[in-house]
Specification:
With 491 residues, the chain is an alpha+beta fold. It has helices at 3-23, 28-48, 53-78, 154-159, 182-201, 206-215, 223-232, 242-258, 263-280, 285-303, 309-323, 327-330, 332-346, 348-355, 365-387, 394-401, 405-419, 423-449, 461-490; strands at residues 88-95, 100-101, 106-112, 119-124, 136-144, 163-168, 171-176, 389-391, 454-456. The chain starts with a helix and ends with a helix.
């Protein structure tokens, strides 16, 4: 087994330990006994059978995965507000993230101060006050344990952020502003200014759609458009991924080189841009993963080494899981992004060969269809389990729209940036991006309006999920066997 394959195996074993612990709490006594046994076995293997040390390493990594999840969960709860659940409290805190606007409420993630500790979620009525990141507030209300929805584990979703308490519509007063991180405040100002420039250049819904493409902003998207995107299988377009970030970073690097900067300086400025961009867009797990992969791609080009997307993906994933073990099971966006990228890595060569995507075709439909099928095939079990439907028209809608996205994002990005400098140039780029955005929304609307766009699974959801899992595994095994047979033949 070569080094990259060993690395992949060790990452999977560590992740398996984390995933197991997310379902089952293992007593610390049993963990301690297991570690004692592993240490004893490792000593014996070192003295007698050194080849067995790889099994010791594998078992140790699995145990460390269990330990990291349980330790993280223990300290998160210990430093949280969970002990005050059920109490009526008067407390102060700082809004530690951008307010999240819902249809009938505004969600504030608040870091408690003084006699209380931990993060909580405050639900308040919309438009009562203009809440911003960094506002210090005082509130009076009852802290409650989050309740799950019928088909959504809301409690687990919040716990990955270290939130174990909710205050529903308490009395809230803002007492100070600008109490958050000065760096984060500055980045959010830049992002908001960028969005304002886009809003002045483009009408709705094109401006909101472009905001989703460039910044992953979904809050301002029209509810009808969101539904059409879901039905047409194009929701991934407004979820920041390695694909989106690569397009943006390529545009930045090209601009820097166009203005005469040396390649070395342009490279480091592009890496800095990735870091700033990730922080500016909220640094969610899927965006951070995409940012790490984008940075590794730039680095491989810089040092002239071959870029291995599989290893880059798992390296990015394991870094994120080590930082926050709960995202592996409870962050759906991270799971979706990871699975889609994995599908592109392993399934694309197969579909590329079947569809002959190396041949030229109208709108490059062969290549787009191969890309879409690769990603959709990999995420199908997750889509079925989470939403309970089968996206029937997704391959067709993506054929028509994906080839337009890179140039749309490029013109949109240039429109926003030039809007900060010269409005005349921004209008030119804005017009070009508007025409493309209008066409893409029409495509989404057409496919999302079809009655057969999705197949609802309802009561057979779990059966279809396991069937989809089995098909994906069989497909993976088949492709790997063909690949190994090809490599053996060519040697």
């Amino acid at each position: 087994m070569n080094l990259p394959d060993k690395f992949l195996l060790f990452v999977i074993l560590y992740g398996a330990g984390v995933f197991t612990a997310s379902f089952l709490f293992i007593s610390w006594i049993w963990i301690l006994l297991f570690l004692v046994f592993i240490c004893s076995f490792a000593l014996w293997s070192f003295l007698c059978h050194k080849k067995l040390l790889i099994f010791v390493t594998a078992a140790t990594l699995f145990a460390f995965g269990v330990i990291s999840f349980q330790t993280s969960d223990y300290y998160n709860q210990k430093s949280s507000s969970i002990r005050w659940n059920g109490d009526f409290v008067k407390a102060s805190g700082v809004v530690c993230d951008e307010p999240e606007f819902k249809e009938s409420s505004v969600w504030l993630r608040v870091e408690l101060k003084d006699n209380y500790q931990g993060k909580i979620l405050i639900k308040t009525k919309p438009y009562t006050k203009n809440f911003q990141y960094g506002d210090e507030i005082v509130f009076e209300g009852k802290l409650e344990e989050p309740e799950n929805f019928s088909d959504f584990d809301f409690k687990a979703y919040l716990s990955k952020e270290g939130i174990y308490s909710i205050a529903n519509y308490p009395k809230v007063e803002i007492i100070k502003n600008h109490q958050g991180s000065a760096i984060k405040s500055s980045l959010l100002k830049v992002k908001n200014l960028f969005e304002e420039k886009i809003d002045t250049i483009l009408p709705e819904p094109e401006s909101s759609f472009l905001g989703g493409l460039l910044l992953g902003e979904r809050q301002s998207l029209d509810a009808g458009l969101k539904e059409k995107m879901q039905k047409s299988g194009t929701s991934h377009l407004v979820a920041l991924s390695g694909y989106n970030i690569t397009i943006i970073c390529t545009a930045v690097l090209s601009l820097l080189l166009f203005f005469g900067l040396k390649r070395n300086i342009a490279f480091w400025l592009s890496v800095l841009f990735i870091v700033v961009f990730v922080l500016m867009t909220g640094a969610s797990a899927s965006v951070v993963r995409a940012g790490i992969m984008g940075g590794l791609l730039l680095l491989s080009q810089r040092i002239g080494r071959l870029y291995h997307p599989r290893n880059a993906l798992f390296l990015a994933g394991i870094i994120m899981v080590i930082i926050n073990p709960k995202i592996l099971r409870f962050d759906f966006a991270f799971q979706l992004s990871f699975a889609a990228t994995l599908g592109l890595i392993y399934f694309y060569p197969f579909f590329e060969k079947v569809l002959k995507s190396d041949q030229s075709s109208f709108l490059n439909w062969r290549g787009v269809l191969a890309t879409t099928l690769s990603a959709q095939f990999a995420v199908l079990p997750l889509i079925v389990l989470r939403f309970g439907y089968f996206p029937l028209v997704s391959p067709l809608s993506n054929i028509f729209i994906l080839s337009l996205i890179p140039i749309t994002m490029l013109f949109g990005f240039l429109a926003g940036v030039s809007g900060l400098i010269f409005s005349g140039l921004a209008m030119i780029f804005g017009l070009l991006s508007y025409l493309l955005l209008k066409m893409e929304i029409l495509i989404i609307d057409f496919f999302g309006s079809l009655k057969f766009a999705i197949i609802s699974l309802d009561k057979v959801r779990e059966w279809v999920f396991w069937l989809a899992v089995g098909i994906v595994i069989l497909m993976f095994v088949y492709i790997q066997k063909k690949r190994l047979k090809y490599l053996k033949y060519t040697r």
